[in-house]
Amino acid sequence: MKRLFYIALLIIMTNNLFAQTESYKVAINNFKESFNKDKYNEIFNSFDSAMQKALPIDKTNQFLIDLKSQVGNIENTEFIKYKKNTYAVFKTKFENTILSINLSLNNQNKVNGLLIKPFEEEIKTENKTINALNNFPKEIADNIYSKSKIFPNNTQLSIAIIQNGKTNYYGIIKVNDSIKPFENQNRIFEIGSLTKVFTSTVLSLLVVENKIKLTDNINSFYSFDFKDNNQVNFESLSNHTSGLPRLPENLDLSNETNPYKKYGNMELEDYLKNLLKLDDKTSRKYLYSNLGAGILGNTLGLSQKTSFQNLLQKRIFDKYKMTNSFMSSQNLGDKLVKGLNANGEEITNWDFDSLFGGGGILSSTEDLAKFAKAQLNFKNKELTLTRIPTFTINEKMKIGLGWHILKSNNDQELIWHNGGTGGYSSSMSINIKEKTAVIILSNVSAFNTEMKNIDELCFALIHGTENK
Fold first, then answer.
1. What DSSP line would sit under 83-143, residue for residue?
2. Which of 12, 160, 327, 336 meets the CB 3.0–4.6 Å disulfide criterion with 332?
3. CA atoms within 13 Å, Cβ hemisphere of 76
4. What pTM was computed for the model?
5. What b/e readout covers 131-165, taking b as 16+ CB neighbours within 10 angstroms?
């Protein structure tokens, strides 16, 4: 290469990676597709206004044309990590070289930071963490150890594996640089965006009972008009095709340790009346939205003249005997596993108000295993409905109501969702055909640079159950 290729496009970083995994996957795939087809205008259109101002369309096009002439098309991309809690790093193989694409998204899933430069493999120091999981099956022990050894001391993982009608629990804790067995299937963790699956399950239950329809607009349940008379229906909130941004612009993110606590009904009403803006009314597309799931939960409560939390407790937790699931971290005592920040220090729990449906549940692997087993019983029509595809995201991923539907190793379908908050990460995957499931709860921060290991472990474990 004649010169070093890199570009820093107004890196406007926000400290918010809460459950953005899917959004970054979509963003990098869209970049790859547009780049390879020479559709540089589409890349420019994916920028936020500040980026477009900093790098006008003529400069964007010229840079991308120059880049293509020297490195060729993109062959594949590999997610490496989140860095500094603000952007995702992708190892990107072009036809002629390997570069790093560092990508940052704002709350509306618009690109507000882009850095393309030569890829540098990180030099990893020897990890001396001891594997003390001698009582676990070797393959499971090796998988857990390899994915958890990098995490800080006091990290806990609580794992449930469902196979052949039986649930086995594998809890671990890292103490004094040793990964040790630890019984914690009854301990409580924040589950983050896994909450969205339960929010959509409440929706599905009300649909099965003919109390609402997926195509019903939510507007009639509010006593005021939405800005610009925007219409939003239930299904689009559940499958992230409403066009709503990831977060409302009137959410105060200055309180990084508890960002949702003060976002109540007044703030939500103000947003819907005065600030609501849908991304594109003419084109239906997938835009992951914590706001949308929060509005969904809030509206479901209004539709039944109660709070969403009350609806969730009575219609879901009570039905599936989930006696160890909660709406708040208060008064849980020693049952609560303390969340850790990215540096391994204890951090306060997150509290949700009007946006509870986007990420407010706390639970245990024992309770989530009950919910997973219920998915395998086709008499539970409301659960079956959540797994029916409602939108195709790409060739490898569809979405039902809440659940993401993925292709597994053997071309089988997995339903999957993950979650992350300031002090916790979670992942849950179910293979309905094989009647297997894996659930992982942890106190690994969503802002930990290695938090992707939680999902990777979940997939490694469920692939290990296939056809066994």
1. ETTTEEEEEEEESS-EEEEEEEE-TTS-EEEEEEEE-----PPPP--EE--TTS-HHHHHH
2. 336
3. 3
4. 0.79
5. bbbeebeeebbebbbbbbbbbbeebbbbbbbbbee
